[in-house]
Amino acid sequence: MSANIVTNASLFKKRILLLFGSPHHVGNTFRLVMQLLEQLEENSFYLEQFDLFEMDLIPCTDCQNCEHGLCCYNHIDHYDDLIEAVQHSDIILLASPVYCAGFPAPVKAMMDRAQQFYVNQFDGRKNTFPQRKKGFLLMTGGNCGERLQEYLTIPTKMFFDCLNVELSGKVIVGNTDKTQKIEADFTDIIASINAGPIEEEE
Ligand SMILES: Cc1cc2nc3c(=O)[nH]c(=O)nc-3n(C[C@H](O)[C@H](O)[C@H](O)COP(=O)(O)O)c2cc1C
After folding, report:
1. CB of 197 closer than 6 A to ligand 1?
2. Among 106, 125, 129, 196, which one is least packed by beta carbons within 10 Å?
3. Is the CB–ligand 1 distance for residue 53 below 6 Å?
């Protein structure tokens, strides 16, 4: 019986939301994302993409209005659309190059604005994103060692946590200064995606 349920569940297409943070439409980060998507089962997912360099997100100014509701900039710069896309997706992919040991400004702006769900006095995170989801980090860096790779998971986890998303895997390719060849092992990410959604405890 349970095997049947699993089989039927796998017929449903997953909705993958790609938060894309590279200015290069066909650069290293794009190639890394494509490698993952090509390794997922054909026709097993829908893809929605937000190009963060094209969104002109307003940086958080700590105006503190979000203590009384959500951010007042949301409908000015279409952060609203991004919120809706997170709500409707099953899986979040955050893809970005490393900039100055961190994230490019448009990605950082998106992350900082998620603070609205953390501080909101009406518990913005649970109200806005009631369902816990899986998220994955894909990054490329010119010369990004293991220590920096580990460090980059900290802001990612904080951002994901604001969206009620669990960082369920990461691939960071750290040597793009030396080679244009992107070599990545997606075994764990693919297994996690195929395993389905997070089982919430009662
Ligand atoms: C402004 C800037 C800052 C960067 N800082 C770093 C860095 O701190 N560490 C690193 O490993 N690579 C750094 N890089 C290199 C990029 O992360 C790397 O070239 C990446 O693969 C570019 O991806 P893309 O082709 O998708 O833009 C930097 C690049 C730029 C333009």
Report:
1. no
2. 196
3. no
